[in-house]
Write a structure and sequence with these properties.
Chain B: This is 5-oxopent-3-ene-1,2,5-tricarboxylate decarboxylase/2-hydroxyhepta-2,4-diene-1,7-dioate isomerase. The complex is a heterodimer. By secondary structure, chain A is α+β, with helices and mostly antiparallel strands. Helices cover 14% and strands 34% of the residues of chain A. In chain A, strand 11 (186-190) and strand 12 form a beta hairpin. The relative contact order of chain B is 0.23. The chains are: A alpha+beta, B mainly beta.
C-alpha cells in the first residue's frame, strides 16, 4: 500500500511502439520525437482493491507492467546507482481508457478510481516475461527487453529533473499492444517469481 | 483561520497563524513568532495535486492558443516540486525562458465523487497560493506541459498557509499578482478563470475521487516574464497570502 508516496509511470517506453509511431512523431501535434521520459502520475485513488470499475459500455486498455518501489531518494543518479534506490518490486496492471494521441496529459483517461491493479510486493527483481491472462486465457505477453529505457536508465533519466523519493512507485513502461477489456472478465498479470496482479472488471453502478 | 506547516525543533508540524500573521500557535499550545519560521509547503504528504494549463483567456491568447480548449488541460504534480514560503527555486543554466505563474490553489476537505458544480465548493476546505514556474525550453509535445517542465524539484513554491474556505466568501473575485524584484509582471483576477474552482472540482470528481488534502492549482493569467538567478519573486492572491520565492542558479 502506498501511503505517503506518489505513483509515477511513463508512456512511450516500448521500443516496438516507438518504432511504429516514428513517422507520426514528425507530424503535428508532435513535430519531433520525445527526448525526456514522458511521465504521468496516478492518484492514490486509482489503487484497485480487487475490482476495476469501468463506465457502462466502455472498454479500457489493460497494460501489464512492473512496479518498482523507491526506497532511497533518487536525484541525479547514474544508471549504475539507480537500482540501489529500489526497495521492492511488484507486478501491476495499469488501466486506461483509450487515448486518441499523446499530446495532452491524460488525467481523464488514466485517473479513474480502481485503475491500478497491483500484486503483492516482493524483493527487488526485474520480471523476465509478463503475461496477461483474461478469463484464464493468455491474451498478451511481453518482455521487458522491449523497454527503450531499461529500468536503471529510466530512473537515471527521470532523476535528472525529478527526484523519485522513498515511498514513490515507478511503473517502468507500458506495452503499446496491450489488450482492451470490457466489464465481466477477470484480469491477471503473471511473471515467474512474482505474485500475480488480479482484478475482476465490472461496470460502475 | 490560517494553517501552516513548519519545520520546528526536529520535526514538521501544522500550526495556526494568528489573525495579524505575526505569531504561530503550536500544537502544544505555545506560540512562536512567524518571522523567521521555517515554512514548509502546506501540503499533505502523498496528496494528489492537479494543475490547470490555459485556464485564463488572456494567457491563452498570449501563448497563441484558443481562448477556450475543448477539454480542460489538467496535469498532475508530485510533492517533489513543492517548496515553502521564502524557499529557493533552482533555475537551470539553460533555462532562460523560466517564468513565474501565480495561481489560486483549492484544497479539498472531504471525499468528492461525482459532485455538481453547485455543491462543489462545499468540498473545498481552504485556499493557498502557488507559483507554478514553467521553463519553456523544456516543453515537448508529449503530455504537454511535460514533467520536465512542470514536475521539477522545488520549482513550485506554495503557501505560506492555507486559509479556511469559510474566510473566502468568493474565490472568483480575488486579485492575482506577481512581482519580480518589485516590478509588477502579472496583474489578473480569478474572475477571469475559464473554469471556476467549483467547475474544476466537479470536473475532476467525475474522473476520480478527490480526497482530503488533494489540491487544484487553478491556472494563471497573462504576464510571461523571464526570470534570472537572484530574482525575488512574490506571488500574491488577494485575501489568501503573499508567497515569496528566491531564484537561485541550479
Amino acid at each position: 500500500m502506498i501511503c505517503n508516496g506518489h505513483i509515477y509511470g511513463v508512456i512511450l517506453n516500448d521500443s516496438r511502439e516507438l518504432a511504429r509511431l516514428a513517422p507520426a512523431f514528425q507530424e503535428k501535434p508532435y513535430l519531433a520525437p520525445p527526448v525526456a521520459p514522458v511521465v504521468y502520475m496516478k492518484p492514490a485513488s486509482t489503487m484497485s482493491h480487487g475490482t476495476v470499475r469501468l463506465k457502462p459500455g466502455e472498454q479500457a486498455v489493460a497494460a501489464a507492467t512492473l512496479a518498482l518501489l523507491i526506497a532511497r531518494d533518487a536525484t541525479g543518479v547514474s544508471p549504475d546507482q539507480a537500482m540501489a534506490c529500489i526497495g521492492a518490486a511488484a507486478l501491476a496492471i495499469d488501466i486506461t481508457y483509450p487515448q486518441a494521441d499523446y499530446y495532452r496529459p491524460a488525467v481523464a483517461q488514466r485517473n479513474a478510481d480502481t485503475f491500478l491493479v497491483m500484486g503483492d510486493w516482493g524483493s527487488p527483481a526485474l520480471a523476465d516475461r509478463i503475461t496477461t491472462m483474461i478469463d484464464g486465457q493468455a491474451a498478451h505477453n511481453w518482455s521487458l527487453d522491449r523497454l527503450a529505457r531499461s529500468p536503471d536508465r529510466l530512473i537515471a533519466d527521470i532523476s535528472a529533473f525529478l527526484t523519485l523519493r522513498a515511498g514513490d512507485v515507478l511503473l517502468v513502461g507500458l506495452p503499446g499492444d496491450a489488450p482492451q477489456v470490457g466489464a465481466g472478465v477477470t484480469l491477471r498479470a503473471e511473471a515467474a517469481g512474482f505474485a500475480p496482479a488480479v482484478a475482476r472488471v465490472e461496470e460502475t453502478t | 483561520m490560517k494553517r501552516a506547516r513548519i519545520y520546528h525543533r526536529g520535526r514538521d508540524i501544522w500550526v495556526s497563524v494568528s489573525a495579524d500573521g505575526q505569531s504561530l500557535h503550536l500544537p502544544d499550545g505555545s506560540f512562536i513568532p512567524a518571522d523567521g519560521a521555517s515554512w514548509l509547503p502546506p501540503v499533505t504528504p502523498g496528496a494528489s495535486s492537479y494543475a490547470l494549463g490555459l485556464n485564463f483567456a488572456d494567457h491563452n491568447k498570449e501563448l497563441g492558443f484558443a481562448p477556450k480548449l475543448a477539454t480542460p488541460l489538467i496535469f498532475m504534480k508530485g510533492g517533489n516540486c513543492f517548496v515553502g514560503h521564502e524557499g529557493d527555486t533552482p533555475r537551470p543554466a539553460d533555462g532562460n525562458q523560466m517564468h513565474p505563474e501565480c495561481e489560486l490553489v483549492a484544497v479539498i476537505g472531504r471525499p468528492a465523487r461525482n459532485v455538481t458544480s453547485a455543491e462543489a465548493l462545499d468540498y473545498v476546505a481552504g485556499y493557498t497560493v502557488a507559483n507554478d514556474y514553467a521553463i519553456r525550453e523544456y516543453l515537448e509535445n508529449y503530455y504537454r506541459p511535460n514533467a520536465r517542465v512542470k514536475n521539477r524539484d522545488a520549482t513550485t513554491p506554495i503557501g505560506p498557509w492555507i486559509v479556511d474556505a469559510a474566510d473566502v466568501p468568493d474565490p472568483q473575485a480575488l486579485a492575482i499578482t506577481t512581482r519580480v524584484n518589485g516590478e509588477l509582471v502579472q496583474n489578473g483576477t480569478t474572475a477571469d478563470m475559464i473554469m471556476s474552482v467549483a467547475e474544476l472540482v466537479a470536473y475532476l470528481s467525475c474522473h476520480s475521487t478527490l480526497m482530503p488534502g488533494d489540491m487544484i492549482l487553478t491556472g494563471t493569467p497573462q504576464g510571461v516574464h523571464f526570470c534570472a538567478p537572484g530574482d525575488r519573486v512574490v506571488t500574491e492572491v488577494e485575501g489568501i497570502g503573499r508567497l515569496v520565492n528566491h531564484l537561485v542558479a541550479g
